[in-house]
Amino acid sequence: MILEKLKNDVVLGDGGAIFELERRGYVSAGPFTPQVVIEHPESVRQLQTDFARAGSEVIQALTYYAHKEKLKDIGAEGYLKEINANAVRIAREVADEYGIIVAGNLSNTWSFDPSNAITYKETRSQFDEQIQYQIEYGPDFFIAETFEYLGEAKIALEAIKAVDMPSLITMGFKSDDKTLDGILLEDAFKELEDLGADIVGINCFRDPKLMLPLAKRLKKTVSCFVATQPVAYRCSKDKPYFQIQEFDGNIAFPLELDPFVLSRFEMARYALEAKKMGINYIGACCGTAPHHIRAMAEALGRTVPNSKYSPNLKLHTIIGDESHIKEQNARILCEQRYGKAHCHFLTKT
Ligand SMILES: [Zn+2]
C-alpha cells in the first residue's frame, strides 16, 4: 500500500508527535516516553487527527521509546504491551477515518552496543516484542527511526522483515556524515538497501537545510525510495543539530527550543526542495506541528481538509485588503509605523 502510493507521487508524512504532545502538556520532557497513549488517548487521537486534516498521508503509531529498555528505566515496563497495542489502535482509527496509512514504529533502544554481541540479541528481542504487540492492530508498514548505529538499524530491519512487512528505516546524523559505528552514510544506506529495506532515509537532529545535502548524497547512492524527516528547529553550520543550540547562554534543549521553531514558510520550502531533489517520502520530526504539515501539503499543490482554515489575510482588519481594513486600525498602524505627523490623510475631518 505505502509502496504503491510512493510509486505514484511523493508521500507526505507526519511530524514529531512526542514533542508536540509535550508542548500540549501530555508527555514529560526528560523521559519522553508515550504513556499518553493509555493515560490520555484522546489527546493522541486529536493530534493525529490534526495531522491527518493538515494533509499527512501516514500516521505513525506513537510508540517512540516504547521498548523494554526505556520503559524499565522509568518503572513503566508493565505497560509495554498496552502502550504498543493502544498506539497502533488509535493511529488505525484516525487513519481509517481519513483513508490514510498507519506506520507501526520502532526506535533506537539504547541497549545496542556494537562491541558486545549479547546486546544484538537483546535489541532484536525488544523489537520483536514491540512488533508482536503492534501488529495485532494492523499497521500497514513499519517505520524504524532515529538510529545512529547501522548495526541497530539492521537489527530493526531484520525484525520487520521477519513479519514480512514493508519497512522505512531512517538514521540520524549529528555532527558528521558517519554512523556511530563509523560507517559512511553512503555505505550504510547501501547496506540497508541490499538487505531489503524498502525505503531508507534520514530523520531527526538536523533542520531541513542541513539534512537535504545528506539526502542528496543518499538519493545518488540507492535506487529504493528515500525519505527525509528533519526537525522543525533551526540549526546552523557550526551547531548542526538541535540539541546543541544555545539560547541566552544556555543549552536550549529540550525546554527552551521555542525561539528556534521554523516558520511554516520554511517547512513549505523544505517540502518543495525535497520533492525537486527526488525525495519520495517527505515527513518531519521534533518541533513540527500541524500548521507546518498543512503548509507543506499546500506547497506540494494539495488541498487538505483543514485548507478550509488556511490563512486568508485579506480579511484582516489591519493588514487586509481595502474592503476589509478598518479606517481606525489603518490610522493606528500608520501612526505606529510612521508617526502621527505622516498620517493626516487617514484622520477623519
Ligand atoms: Zn526528532
H/E element sequence = HEHHHEHHEHEHEHEHEEEHEHH
Total number of strands: 10
CATH class placement of the largest domain = Alpha Beta
Distance between the termini: 67 Å
Q: Report the radius of gyration as a whole number of Å.
A: 22 Å
**Beta fraction:** 5-15%
What is the fold named in CATH at topology level of the largest domain? TIM Barrel
Overall mean pLDDT score? 95
**CATH superfamily (homologous) name of the largest domain:** Homocysteine-binding-like domain
Q: Tell me the count of domains.
A: 2
Architecture per CATH nomenclature, i.e. the level-2 architecture of the largest domain: Alpha-Beta Barrel
Helix content class = 40-55%
Secondary structural class: alpha/beta
Largest sheet: 8 strands, parallel
How is the largest sheet built, in terms of strand order? 1-10-7-6-5-4-3-2
Bound molecules: zinc ion
**Shape, per Cα inertia axes:** globular
Helix count, per DSSP? 13
Task: Catalogue the unreliable spans.
Answer: none
Write structural notes for this entry.
With 349 residues, this protein is of the alpha/beta class. The protein has two domains: 2-288, TIM Barrel; 313-346, no CATH class. It is 43% helix and 11% strand. The chain has 13 helices and ten strands. It has helices at residues 2-8, 17-23, 36-39, 41-54, 68-73, 80-98, 117-135, 150-162, 185-194, 208-221, 264-277, 290-299, 327-338; strands at residues 11-12, 58-60, 101-107, 141-147, 167-171, 199-203, 225-229, 246-247, 250-251, 281-282. An eight-stranded parallel sheet has the order 1-10-7-6-5-4-3-2. Strand 8 (246-247) and strand 9 (250-251) form a beta hairpin. The longest helix has 19 residues, at 80-98. The protein starts with a helix and ends in an 11-residue tail after the last helix. The mean pLDDT is 95. Zinc ion binds at residues 16, 204, 231, 285-286.
